[in-house]
Amino acid sequence: MATSPCSSSGVSSSSSSGLGADAGLEIRTRSVEQTLVPLVSQITTLINHKDKPKRSDKTLQAIQRVGQAVNLAVGRFVTVGEAIANENHELKEEMSVACIEARRAGETIAQLTDVASLDHPESDSHITIFTDKTGVVKAARLLLSSVTKVLVLADRIVIKQIITSRNKVLATMEQLEKVSSFQEFVQIFSQFGNEMVEFAHLTGDRQNDLKDEKKKARMAASRAVLEKCTMMLLTASKTCLRHPDCESARINKDGVFHRMRLALEQVIEIVTDSRPNGESEMAPISIYSGIKEFKNKVEGLRENLYFLSKENLSTMLEVILEHTEDFTDSAYTSHEHREHILELSKQAKMELEQLVSVWMQAQNQKTKDLMEDLEVAILKTCQCMNELKREVHSAATSLAADLLKYHTDHMVLKALKITGVEGNLEAVAEYTCKLSEQKEQLVEMCRLLRHVSGTEPLEITCIHAEDTFQVTGPQIISAAETLALHPSSKIAKENLEVFCEAWESQLSDMSLLLREINDVFEGRRGEKRVYLSLPRPGKHNANLKALKPVKLDSEEQAKIAKLGLELHLLTSDVDSETEKWEDQENEIVQHGQGMSSMAYSMYLFTRGEGLLKTTQDLFHQAEIFATEGTKLASALHALSDQVRDDDKPLLLLEAEKLITMCKQLQATAKASAQGKSATFTKVDACILKTRNVMTLLCQLLPLCCKLLRKNKAGNGCLKPAPPWKEDRIRTGTNARTPERRVETFGIKSLENHVTNMTFLESK
């Protein structure tokens, strides 16, 4: 569905002024949307000047400065757009048209606002913003539409980069599949590693830029598959080269290549928003989402007795109860839970029958008694659905907790490794059967958890976990069979270790997922964004020797536990502050939520849990956290341009503090550390500096919220924006890296120019 670029907060007033971008342009990323927000807002302010009854010389001069500033800004913006067109010939025609339209609109606005030198700006002898009201609205609409087109076209270049990077990876994968010698494999895999790192960074940036949380979660899942499969591809391919006639080794390797291709395809589907053969994605409906929608419809009867039919309501309940059969038919649901779910399903049908009966009567005769009976029926129906929701949640999470506790010792994996090295094919066959049983249990657990996950991103994480167990189980079996056939093979042993580690890692992630599902159910964290650490450059190096991951031991975890707990408490405080904001799409809130989520991941690391597995993961996350803090500081500077003079110094002081802290954290995270003691000191310093930034964030959020509310109240809260800042404009290309020149002319460079389109607010 197309989304208007004006639909985000801060620009909704544009519709009342007749502004609107091309309805055919869909804004899918935050960078494009956030670039348009100030433009739409400020153009609307300019339009509103025409309705002011009194016009002093100061006001006329201000309006003229605004018009000139807009024209200059558009000129610089168009220069960047034209550079993009020259670099990308397939977009040249579209981009050129959009640039011409933008330039024309900018010149028109400059002409219409050329009023300061006129004695009578209202005179019909000279067409101005005051005499041609329709003309300025048309020019503003054309400007907004053309700028949006330029931004969306620039975004296509980012998509093109990802597709090109994917194609490189696929081409190199085809070469890897066909190699027959170790020397050739080493050379090609070195190239493959570099291409995968580049692809990981491009898709990581895209993931964090996506507006749709569901797509963001799908992207995270696909990228996680690719990261884990890269090491699997290495060991599986080496095993196949060492044992070319081994059928189980070939099956093992083919499985890895197939899974990587599927993950690469899914990434492209997400970034291009398309599916093969034009088929639409059919997302499975969970019990939670079904109950939520059903309750909304039932409670809607209070306002309108005629907005839906009783058949619709009955059908919705039938679908929910069909899904509860996933629990009642499961061999792993306890007898007690099964009986309770069946009883509540029966009760839900009875409550709906009673509700429908009273509802039909109320449609015919709206008496006080009937309306009271209807209210009671609505409450009883909703209460029954809440109890059903609680029961299926208890059934799924208790099963998950029991299974994860039972399999925490990894006895089957250990047995497979031992019997494989012994070459005991009969014992390996016995333990592969046990692993298959374990896989079925874990797959069923994931299916049930998906029904109670509570948010779409967590639903997708459950689906990803289910797929991982489904695929990794057979891969472990083929790796174990290969080792049993070649018990003295070091590479076959290493290969089995890699697949077992992937299984153990997924089990560890399930513990975190279970905790997050419980947090959502209990209302502790809500729809929290998850920031996965990006793969590090050099992880897959040419010599193919896997770097040993560095983890904190129990003694180090104990030392850092207090600091981690403080960080956890601060994330809760920041979450509480962001929830107070009316506008959840505000840039300051977005950055604050992102920083809180990353800080929470760092807290989990201090406990030996979560997605950050090694100290290198932590340091990389700290760098991303610091970058997000710097972006927040930029948003604070933008806010300071709008507040009164007496409010500005404090806000700027806090922004400078934040920048300094983030620079210090970034320097600490990038500093080298050799040895166990130095590494722990660096970990401690990163957590400490992150805590300090979060402490400052707890102070900044309420301050900004207060200032924005003050501004919203109006009556002189906003000050005129500063004159145009020429020195902030930077364009150019890097001659030493021609293949990356297009990045200079991407969304970010265009964003710099639009950000400077700051117009004057009337006092």
From TrEMBL:
Region annotated Disordered, chain positions: 1-20
Gene name as annotated: Ctnnal1
Subcellular location: Cytoplasm
Predominant subcellular localization, coarse grouping: cytoplasm
Keyword line: Cytoplasm
Protein's UniProt keywords contain Cytoplasm: yes
Identification of the protein by name: Alpha-catulin
Gene Ontology CC terms, in alphabetical order: cytoplasm
Organism annotation: Melospiza melodia (Song sparrow)
Gene3D superfamilies attached to this UniProt entry: Alpha-catenin/vinculin-like
Cytoplasm is among the record's keywords: yes
Signal peptide: none
Top-level taxon of origin: Eukaryota
GO molecular function: actin filament binding; cadherin binding
